[in-house]
Every structure is written in C-alpha cells, then in structure tokens.
Amino acid sequence: MRGIGLIIAIILVVAVAVGLYTMVDIDQTQEAQLPNVTVEGGQAPEFDVRTGSVDVETETREVEVPTIRVNPPAE
Fold first, then answer.
1. Separation in Å, CA 59 to CA 47, 56, 62, 68, 74
2. Residue in 19, 13, 74 with CA at minimum distance from that of residue 51
3. 3-54 residue pLDDT tens
4. Integer-rounded Cα radius of gyration of the chain
5. Where are the beta strands (DSSP E) in the chain?
6. How many angstroms separate the CA atoms of 66 and 75, rounded?
7. Which of 24, 28, 43, 60 has its CA 20 to 30 A from that of 67?
8. Rounded distance, CA 46 to CA 28, Å?
9. Global pTM?
C-alpha cells in the first residue's frame, strides 16, 4: 500500500508540473543590449507573455445546520 501511495504522489507532482509548464508561454521578442561604458542608455528585453485563464463562479445555496444542545452536568 505504501508503494502505491508513493506512485500516486509522483503522478500528482508530475501532473502539477506539466500543468504549470503549459499554463504560461513566454517568447522573447527583443534581445537585451548592454549599456554604454558611460552607463547611459541600454535596453531591457521585451517579452510577449500568454497565460492560461481560470474561471471562478459563485452560487448561493441554503444549507441545513444541525441544532446543538449542551447540557451542563448536574451539581
């Protein structure tokens, strides 16, 4: 049983890693340029980033809550 749990845990870790890897796609669109020796200018690289989307929905429901009665001990 312990071996099966370990295998399931490894599968879950791999599934999460694959999900995170495919959720974001980053492509560098411009190379970086070092600044001049006088430390003027320079250029930071530009990136196009496409991320996955997550839809979150809410709904209202009525839930029946049990009544709890506490009877203190008799003295």
1. 38, 10, 10, 27, 45
2. 19
3. 888 888 899 998 888 888 787 778 889 998 887 777 677 888 999 989 888 8
4. 28
5. 24-30, 46-51
6. 28
7. 60
8. 6
9. 0.33
